[in-house]
Amino acid sequence: MRPILSVNNGRSVYNTLFHIKIQLTFTVKFLYVLGISILLNACGGGGSTSPLTDPLEPLADFNANWGVVGAFTDANTCVECHRASAAGDLNVVMRAPDVNGLPDPQGEDISPGSGWKHSVMAHAFDDPYFQAKMQDETTLLPQLAGDLEDKCLTCHSPMARTHAHQTNTGLDSSNCSLGDGCYRYDQALLDDHAREGVSCTLCHQIEDINLGTEASFSGHYSINSVNREIFGPYNSPVSGPMNSGTIYTPVSASHVSDSDMCATCHTLRTPTIDIDTGQATGTEFLEQSPYLEWKNSIYFSGNNGEQQCQDCHMKAPANYQTRIAVRPNGSVNTGWLERSPFPQHQMFGGNAYILEVMKTFADVLGIDATTTTAGFDDVINKTRSFLQQDSADLAITNAVQQAGQLNVDVSIINKTGHKLPSGYPSRRMWVQLIVKDAVNATLFESGSPDANGRISIDTASLAAECLAVKKQAGFDSSACFEPHRNTISDASQVPVYEEVMADTNNNLTYILLYADHVLKDNRIPPQGFTTMSANYDPDTAIIGIGADSDFNVSNGVEGSGSDTVHYQIDTGGRAGPFTVEARLLYQSIRPSFVYSMQSQVTRVDRFKIMYEQVVPTVETLATSMQQIN
Predict the structure, then answer these.
(1) Cα 243 from Cα 564, distance rounded (Å)
(2) Which DSSP letter does residue 49 get?
(3) What number of CA atoms fall less than 13 Å from residue 613's CA on the CB side?
(4) pLDDT tens digits along 495-546
């Protein structure tokens, strides 16, 4: 592996910045950051345990042809057969359907490897925000560094972490409570099977053991290191080619199409550390829970709207069937069965922004040799289309003018099978409302993002006292985040849907291991979500909405999966008709989560530089417009 460049090894910082085309104006800021970082390290500050290195020195290139390691094989081996036929081939395999749902000889390559290659799943380890957050927390809690990295890499580098523990190799016992040792980030950088992220032979080898139960959550999936069985959704798999060309035997298994399998990593409980003592409290915090939210919805198995995670996030083309493989030489065996449905493997979610970052900094992350700008753009565009089509409906449900006041109701309906937004707690969603008068002059504007993806309330959340890891005695965290808004009468108020974590002192925290409970969780639940359900988990409770009678309630009945925001706007004598435009906006990383990382260490500095260079995306999920006379 090529070593990361030291700041003092003779290569100038300017040349490093020039290598990645950093603008001159930002170079000054970067040099300043480096200078402060060096000073802090020299004075023993910042918590770093190793010399500062250049955050933007490219990593060694990832080698996608790493072959076989224990129970796992590189994705390229799978792609050799599970790929699309040549364009124009009359025996079409895995090419996009035409208008009739039939394979199109000239259609886009929609094979598993083609979609997966530029997905967040493929780059679960490469994700620079994940790496920064992990290093920030290990720097704050060095005594837990081994355990924390091992736990994170269970799902971000699952093949390598699993292999290390199955074979007792590549493990480190320092700052680790596990008997055989911990799998660490520094080792993962050396292991290409770690850098391949969540790959084919990880998901397709997860056994149907304890799935859908607490025993399988938080990365407790089961993979047999001996059987070498590849699980797929189709009956009567053709086993000969896979038996002869790989170390695996294909097996029909319906569990690969069930949400229970996704829940192994997408239901995560983390131990709570007392912020004063640094000791574990013996309790856990539910860091993310889309699966538990889905169980309490109309989409849960057996309910009237049943849909599995894969039905949305791996949506299959309608009325389409295809052979799922070609021969190694690329020819089509017309004797192999055509299969349907055919799930897509881009695995769309809510994180187009981090794909933008990885596309821009592919050389720094060591993935430019195996990815393309066009490939990232394709997945980014499809992710945004997915967000716009499948996230939410927005409607102006009431708009009247009387006695010099506009009364405008904006209703949001969650179309997903989990809370909106769900997943990692850095995500937020909000309503932007703009009202213009008869001469098109703005009368009222709330929730508009600036050029850096910030909204008015971010000024308070980015204050130093709010970002501090340990708050002063008597600190009031309520000043650091927007409360739930049911009625809005001032432009400074914004209806923000988010989760706000609190530490053991009841102060807002951005540190996952300090998270003890929730101060606010007004994320809109899925339709069917009720506190009376047998599947209701108290850890998924709605927190901090106050007396909001229409939040997740319709006609007095719980479970609507919706909320209505009531605007009361003084027209100030302005003449109508008035045009009202509402937009439902979303961000995968809110600014306070970035700037709360204060450790002066390489991966934190690196992500902050990336974040400032790639403007944080604000996604538009839905829009509505109406004119009021």
Answers:
(1) 57
(2) -
(3) 25
(4) 999 999 999 999 999 999 999 999 999 999 999 999 999 999 999 999 999 9
